[in-house]
Amino acid sequence: MSLFKKQKKTFDNLPTHIAIIMDGNGRWAKKRSLPRSAGHAAGSKTFKSIARYANKIGLKYLTVYAFSTENWKRPKEEVDNIMNILRDYLLDTDSFKNENIMLRFIGDLTVLDEDIKELIKKAEKDSSEATGLRVNIALNYGGRDEIVHAVRRIVESGIKPEKITEDTISENLYTHDIPDPDFIIRPSGEYRLSNYLIWQSAYAEYWFSDILWPDFKPKHLDMAIEDYNNRNRRYGGI
Predict the structure, then answer these.
(1) Which sequence spans correspond to the domains of the chain?
(2) Catalytic site residue from 12, 25, 55, 71
């Protein structure tokens, strides 16, 4: 039984925005003597399960790290496999639309294959009227690259240096229309951000776990949120 069913107090402090680093697919496959592609496929299923569960419990925003700007360094076969999994997912986004989930993609999408870009446009358009959970999929995303992109936009707009504020930068990020994450979850036993939402995470809470992403279940999200509920966020105050 879910911790939410056992302890209603969990709902009293549900984060507005949770960001997840979906890590551990390759290690999950290796432990089972499977190809890395099997790990990525399993991770995709986990993402769908967690997104649906997050919508069910009333979360407003979920941002997931799907493919980083550094991931292009991986073997071409693995990258191609990840992109094919993405294609399959994009062809099956009607289920999310029917569940009132909005889909958005953040990152530098210009370098993606044309068919993927068209599928992304369709997925975003088809889910644009959804009023439930908003899922942001970070694709070809890097935190530093995002800041560089924002600075270029600011310079191109002609804003005088003395007029640039933190808000100016935030308004030019990929996430300009959503609140910063309250809570960042990283499974797989790693303890770093890996260039993920580095501007937006300035005051986020973190939750790390040894669980590999394909093994991450709704009960683990319950555990993380319960932990979040027991923290006191002071934002530099007392």
Answers:
(1) 14-229
(2) 71
